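User: I'm writing a tutorial on reading structure tokens. Could you give me a worked example: one chain, its sequence, then its tokens, then a sentence or two explaining what the tokens reveal?
Assistant: Sure. Here is the example chain.
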Amino acid sequence: MQNDRGIAFYCIVLFLSLALPALACSYEHRYVDPTEIASSDLSNKDFGYRNLDHRDFSGKNLQGTDFTGADLSNSNFTDADLSGAVLDHAILLGADFTGATLPEKWALIIDLVTSGEGAGRDLSGYDLSRTYLAQAYLSETNLRGANLTEAGLARADLSGADLSEAELRATNFVAANLRGAILTGAELRGAYLIGADLTHALITDEQLKNTIMECTRLPDGTVVNLRPYCTPPTPPSK
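And here are its predicted structure tokens:
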């Protein structure tokens, strides 16, 4: 029975890591026939929430193309023109943007969202809103004052990260490691903390009041809203 509950919780975490915060957008990754992307000019096309992983967009005109929520993992965008393209919530892990022309916001953070490696970096004040950063390694990262509104940080390692004064409205922290994170003054209204570990994090009860918590480990080590279908976060080693 306990094992069945653990499997059920894993499935819930997996779903939430993919679907939040896009639940209001009829989330799905619809298949795209290769003929739909054969043209060298795909400007202003709508590929929102489409399955486009491992595709070749190299050298294509993608100006103003809408990739909202699309799965673009491991796709080739070398030398493509993505001026004005929309990449909100898009899955970019492993995608190659070498030589690509990117919107200003994404030009600053493309390495982070494609590699998932950001430990110890200074990203203070950055606009990372609506970026997909599931499982990203952001331990000890300076995110002070950053905008992470609706960002997808499920299962991310944010241990020791400085998130003070950050904008974290509706941010997806499902099963995230927030041990020792600094959240002083951060706005967390509507943030998803299901299965998250906040052991020793600097955060107030007032900040937590308007978050979504289930099976969440609080700074003092207690677990709140433990449900039959979930298992508590693994306590830190001593």
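What the tokens reveal: DSSP finds three helices and four strands in the chain. Confidence is low (pLDDT under 50) at residues 5-11, 21-27.
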